[in-house]
Amino acid sequence: MTRSYMPDDTFLTEFRHFRACGYTLDEIAAVLGIQVESVERRLQRMRKRGLQIDHLVGDACTVLADADAVGEAANAVTVAVREMDPSELHRWITTQCELRPAQMAQVMMALGAWVNIEDETTVARGERIESLSAPRRSA
């Protein structure tokens, strides 16, 4: 089944989704009902127009290979949380999630597994964060 032509923004949205799910170029072409060469030509045209898409084409959408790699990446995030400026950290994490969604999902799951939500210290920190982030009422 061949699909009719779709606008670039629609193509990129679908392409990102499939890459985030781990699809290869061959698999994406098959799902879209087009030849791999057509996908490659379209990506090349987008590059020539200045669209930043290289992060979607390489292996950036693949998962981390083993538990050690996931642990190292998760540890790097915990270090960054302590050492980076919050606005810089937010930009960095947002960018990493956009560029490497599958890997960052692994990192977030590892971080979640490390936190004992029933620990008294964790509960106290959570309450403190909630009180600090609660909307302020003006008098």
UniProtKB/TrEMBL annotation:
UniProt source species: Antrihabitans spumae
Origin: domain of life: Bacteria
Entry similarity comment: Belongs to the sigma-70 factor family. ECF subfamily.
Keywords recorded for this protein, A-Z: DNA-binding, Sigma factor, Transcription, Transcription regulation
Annotated RNA polymerase sigma factor 70 region 4 type domain residues: 16-49
Pfam families referenced in this protein's UniProt entry, alphabetically: Sigma70_r4_2 (PF08281)
Gene3D superfamilies in alphabetical order: Winged helix-like DNA-binding domain superfamily/Winged helix DNA-binding domain
UniProt name for this protein: Sigma factor-like helix-turn-helix DNA-binding protein
